Amino acid sequence: MLALTLDHRRALRALAHTIRPIVRIGAEGLSENVIHELDQGLKSHELIKVRVFSDGREIRNALLQEMCHRLEAAPVQHIGKILVIYRPKPDEIAKPATAAFRKKRESRRTKRSFQA
């Protein structure tokens, strides 16, 4: 299973806020078809959300750990029935993790700054 730093995980949670779940796991659990769809989603998007329709928190934790173990991914977040997992693309593993994220914008100059 892949390990993430706290800063990297925080940035991934911020990026995951706007995306929608691409895989839904029902009563059948993790079948081979679900694992295949998760793998395809991670290959194309790197960061995906998964919705689990199970009421037990322990069951969802076990599913998250099994998904991450089988897909060699990292768990990012588990809130309610939504799980977020991340796996970098193979060519981007060697790059530093902070280079992939947006830089903060510089503050805008105000009207008063031009009057001086």
Characterise this structure.
The chain has 116 residues and is α+β, with helices and mostly antiparallel strands. Helix content is 39%, strand content 19%. It contains four helices and four strands. The protein has helices spanning 6-16, 32-45, 57-71, 111-115; strands at 21-25, 47-52, 74-79, 82-86. It has a four-stranded mixed sheet with strand order 1-2-4-3, sandwiched between helices. Helix 2 (32-45) links the parallel strand 1 and strand 2. The longest helix is centred in the middle third of the chain and has 15 residues, at 57-71. The radius of gyration is 18 Å and the shape is elongated. The termini are far apart. The mean pLDDT is 86.
Q: Topology, pairings included?
A:
Elements: H1 6-16, E1 21-25, H2 32-45, E2 47-52, H3 57-71, E3 74-79, E4 82-86, H4 111-115
Parallel strand pairs: 1-2
Antiparallel strand pairs: 2-4, 3-4
The SSE order reads: HEHEHEEH
Q: Alpha-carbon distance between the termini? A: 56 Å
Beta-strand percent range: 15-25%
What is the number of E strands? 4
Helicity range: 25-40%
**Classification by helices and strands:** alpha+beta
Strand order of the largest sheet: 1-2-4-3
- Globular, elongated, flat, extended or rod-shaped: what is the shape? elongated
Residue-averaged pLDDT: 86
Give me the Rg, rounded. Answer: 18 Å
Q: Uncertain runs with pLDDT below 50, 5 residues or more?
A: none
The number of helices is 4
